[in-house]
Amino acid sequence: MSMRRQLYEWQINRQTNGYPLASAADGTTFEQIAGLPISIFTGGIGNNITMPAATTATQFVAIDNMRCSPSWFLSGAGVMAVYNTGAAAKFITNGNNTEFPIPTTDATSSTNLGGSFTINTSGSFTTTLPVPTTNSGTGTGGVFTLNALGAASPNTTTEFSIRTGSGYAVGDIITWNAATIIAADGSITGATGPQLSFTVQASDLRTYTNRSDIIYTGTLSSPIYSPSTEYPELTFQTTHVNPFTSIAGPMMFMQLLINTTSYFNETDGTVGPGLPGTASPCPEMASCRSTFEFESPVYILPGQQWDVQVTVYNDSRASIGDSTKTYNFTGSYNDTTEDLCCLVQYTLYDGPDALIASKLVEMGVAVRPENVDWYKRQLLEGTI
Amino acid sequence: MSARSVSRLWLNGGQFTTAAATTGDYPGTLGYITNPRPTNITAGQSTDTFSDSVGPSLTKPTATTATQLIVIEKPLCSLNQGGRVKPIVNTTAYNLNPDGTSNDNSAFPGIAYPFPDGAEVNDATGIAAGNAGQYVYSMAKLNQPIYILPGQTFENKFIPLSGVTGVTQVVTVDGNVVIPGDSVTSFTTFSVYDGPDALIASKLIEMGYPISMSNVDWYKRQLLSEAGGASQ
Questions:
Q1: Distance (Å) from the alpha carbon of A212 to chain B's nearest alpha carbon
Q2: ipTM for the complex?
Q3: Over the stretch A171-208, which tens digit does the pLDDT of each residue have?
Q4: N or C end of chain A: which has fewer CB within 10 A?
Q5: What domain range is B207 assigned to?
Q6: Do B84 and B102 contact (CB within 8 A), yes or no?
Q7: A 237-256 near B (Cβ less than 8 A)
């Protein structure tokens, strides 16, 4: 005799026993599950249980709540805002990728490179400078190159270029000790002055210009968008944006089956995929709250079998359209995993409580723990 | 005999075709498809979110049978593109302007009934998407739910006040580029009462009570009590 509120959690990036997958190769791809109902109990994907869910002759189950991964339906401008926000975060000073203009060089000038520092070497050369000795700003990751063009020693026509890096601002002063520079390149035999000093100018930095389109690979009908050095990961809230559908998230539905009957039917009598996760989200968050609740619990009577099936319609992995990437894939370009989940909350009535629950159903009273307790009180008072 | 809480999700996602990739006019489908492409909708064009030529459609328009009664609880839709929904029962549209007129603007706007509940204003404007603190929440359920009585027809029209642009894919000097489209959606929650429960629901309307599953259960208990059964 008992009443217990229970919860079953399913996630796609799990082993059968519920522990995280050991590697991305063990995961599931969108192509494997697209548009196909998957049982969260015995579907063979994610964590599963040993047998289909069923009540015994002395059990009664009331489904209280069902949740699954939400999706957001974005405007085209919203998708581009996601893209441009991500691209701007990857902003590269004088970067050498296709997204941005070619690297520019900054010819030596007294206002930029420290005028008191000259390279003592003959002939032209190019050398990549070591990590700066000091940096008055917050920029990181810059690759600084010296191009000495003159044939004489000391060189007086030196170019200085910056590639990659981010966070540099106009006025930042970056310095290298002479000894450090000399140690970095054997062709530099000496220097005049204590240090090389470089002051970042506006011309060294570029302003990121928002794009109005997104470059993709693949075919017209099967396009692929993958994060890379040039292109940002398209993240929005807890999920990824598919730029071809303008949907962020898996567009996931969940259907409840009792024996062979689906609970969520369409109004034309057909069986649809069920309740969308956007209406009953997991996790519930500020940007997506639940808008659906069972006004009355759904009952699984003694001896019935039940199941919850989820269906996914939108590719929301970090790499959209790439059939080689699983939901568990992580890469070097901030490709993060995509988690699909489903929660079912139910109350299990066992023994005499299951009998009372069945009696309440006959009476047209909602089966809830407080009503079961009410019925017990009525029995004790002898009013039933 | 049953009472069920069910729902209907619609979006402007259509089937990919090579021709549509340049025009943005993706044909509607019967049921949901994978990776649906946002399709064009002109400003003011109304689309029945149950059965129409845009997005996923059912096999026939929605109508209750002689033994069914439907209660529409929340007509939600996108904030994007001035989205709004107008429920129509038989030929009567909800809701009306104070002067009794009905036009596209007098529908239920997504700004009051957004989907998802918590949609960002910035989703629509494209400014600082993901910016916390810009979430829009739904007003409460309709004070007076919309009843679809036995034998009535029902349409739920999605109407954007601004044009909805479909996704397009073109080849440029940069390579293949996609110009993302506007994804708009509508979500309707409703309860379906069937058989004796529909009769009880109709009885509740006559009695002046709002239809809810708890009120239907209450009525059943009254019947049982009168018959000498449960006292509560």
A1: 7
A2: 0.91
A3: 788 888 777 777 776 666 555 556 777 777 766 666 67
A4: N
A5: 3-231
A6: no
A7: 237, 242-247, 251, 253
